[in-house]
From TrEMBL:
GO biological process entries: carbohydrate metabolic process
Species in which this protein is naturally found: Methylomagnum ishizawai
This protein's name: Squalene cyclase C-terminal domain-containing protein
InterPro entries: 6-hairpin_glycosidase_sf
Amino acid sequence: MNTTATRLKQIAARIKTRYLDEPRLPAPAQRQLLLDRAGLPDLDPGPEAVAAAGIAWLKRSQDQSLHRDGGSARDFSLLKGWASAYPETSGYIVPTLIDYADRTHDSALADRARRMLDWLVSIQFPEGGFQGGKIDADPRVPVTFNTGQILIGLAAGVRRFGDAYLEPMHKAAAWLRDSQDADGCWRKHPTPFAAPGEKAYETHVSWGLFEAARLAPDPGYGEAGLRQVRWALTKQRENGWFASNCLSSPEQPLTHTIGYALRGVIEAYRYSGEADLLTAARKTADALLRAMATDGRIAGQLDCDWNATVDWVCLTGSVQIAACWFLLHAITGNAAYLDAARRANRYVRRTVPISGDPDIVGGVRGAFPVDGDYGRFEYLNWAAKFCVDAQLMELDYPAPA
């Protein structure tokens, strides 16, 4: 028996032992777990192929969502199949669809983005907020974070399709502005689907306000966003790490929420031009440079000294951070950011299937290996969205010689 076959048999035996106390894993989950435990594939399909496959997967997530309502399914699970639509992430998937549609002159894809927006407008609360969780989640209550993500999509809709989305954009932005505490933190409308407490990563909500402010400068949306970012920076340590910055484990935040926090600070700088915001963003971005391995691997959770606390990768966080490095390279010209972004992208691309089962082709797992404790056995719609974004950013740079 050759070495590879022997190794796969050993891995299969360990997997069987590990899951003895769980219901038997379906064959597709077993197969993916076996492949992941064998190691990262060698093949890098390249940014163009992965971006195209990711868009195809996002289209499928809209078509296959449980209620076929126009939103994007939260995930495809190897254990449960397609989920119902997720308003929050459908909101920021909209600008990704618009961007790709405009790059490729794909009017049908733009129509899909518009259908997603129309669905979102139809579920907006009268006061302007949007619900947390999936569309069929209980309780159904307005949530700050989810509203901010949908605001990003509404602003993109106004920019691309016109005034049909202007009133919903204003309602969402005003609701966020008016529900903010005096110190800049949002505390009144937390999600019921995460651990309670203040969230530094709501800088990503502020990004939505900056997008609205670019279209409507007068109502104070941008000022509200900057207040929150400055509050969040009170949670940043000198080494760039943010406290109060995770869904459930603030002492070891996910790279996903680190990516959210960092992107919001970068967007605050891009909106305001205030130099100290760029300095703050670079503290975090530079620390992440040191936390990444040479092959582009970043552990999925990192403690306050930027040490890995888990042995799996949060693929979503990796491509979010890559996007932040691309933006910082564009701002600063620092070649280290460009190199790191490419390496992080390449790592994630090697996990993305580009042939085979259409339910997973172009999809991005919550974690690598697939049984990691984020999006376990799931292909997440926001992971695909952020992956496409990061690949398109890479395509905007000439390929390295």
